[in-house]
Design goal:
By secondary structure, the chain is of the alpha/beta class. It has 11 helices and 7 strands.
């Protein structure tokens, strides 16, 4: 298995946003070089960029915007947590997330977990650009369907007695329900009380409007072609129930309309997100 193509496309969406949209929602300046060829070539060469993205974004532009918005939401929550004294940042299904490459906050350690092939790709890209992996960043290979997060983290310089902020983006819908529950349970074991987790999820297809269902089916066809089909959809009550069973409480669970109000309401370019997408922040119960 090679590096996740879904993770590469997510980074490409963040890179495209920085190059094309104003004002920016998220300034992911490292996404373009993390990608490597051929995608970074496509993004940099104007005729190729125009052809590639015209075809892709004509079908999934709201999804592209959501990729950017969910990262901005996670980074906003992280910034507040760091202000509250959190000094450990754990990224599940990290893909080509670049926060640790754009920030070197004193005392904050970053632990990125993802499948081995994706981690190897990312480490190679970082070393090619920077010469070495930053000392505050630890890349941890893991198979989420078979390995416990607590075990993977405890083999590293991770302090289970200190609060952690956890980001889990673009992953839940690709996992089985059992894997999601096991991940939350493992997180609860690995995280001290007061730790926070941010994640996104998609609502059941039965609740989608015709336009959103068409958008979802286009997105799912692409994932299935890449060997990453969507498997799990949740409503807000189901998500809260899973969290509660694992020892977390919901801090906030934002609907698409609430996300639009927070991040898109002042824009004049018509950027939008899918109506079936939600963003949630939860906290490990004391």
């Amino acid at each position: 298995m090679g590096p996740s193509q879904t993770a590469q496309l997510a980074a490409a969406h963040r890179a495209y946003h920085l190059m094309h949209d104003r004002p920016t929602i998220l300034e992911d300046s490292a996404a373009i070089w993390l990608l490597g060829p051929p995608l970074n070539v496509v993004l940099r060469v104007a005729p190729l960029r125009q052809l590639f993205w015209k075809r892709l974004l004509a079908k999934v532009r709201p999804v592209s915007v959501f990729v950017v918005v969910r990262s901005r939401y996670a980074e906003d929550c992280l910034e507040r947590s760091i202000s509250d004294g959190y000094r450990q940042y754990v990224i599940l299904g990290a893909g080509l997330d670049s926060w640790a490459l754009r920030h070197d906050t004193p005392g904050v350690s970053v632990f990125e977990l993802d499948q081995p092939a994706t981690q190897q790709w990312k480490e190679a890209r970082i070393r090619a650009r920077l010469g070495t992996v930053p000392s505050h960043l630890t890349l941890i290979p893991i198979d989420f369907e078979r390995e416990a997060i607590a075990d993977a983290l405890c083999s590293q310089q991770y302090d289970r007695g200190s609060r952690a902020f956890v980001s889990w983006l673009g992953t839940i819908c690709y996992l089985t329900r059992g894997a999601i529950e096991a991940t939350l349970a493992s997180l609860a074991m690995a995280c001290a009380p007061g730790s926070r987790v941010v994640f996104d999820y998609f609502q059941p297809k039965s609740t989608m409007s015709p336009a959103d269902l068409q958008l979802f089916e286009e997105l799912d066809r692409g994932g299935t072609r890449r060997g990453e089909p969507m498997q799990t959809f949740l409503d807000s009550e189901e998500a809260a129930g899973m969290l509660h069973s694992a020892g977390f409480r919901v801090v906030e669970d934002l609907s698409a309309s609430e996300v639009r109000h927070r991040y898109l309401r002042h824009r004049s370019d018509g950027l939008d997100i899918p109506g079936f997408a939600r963003l949630c922040c939860a906290e490990r119960a004391v």
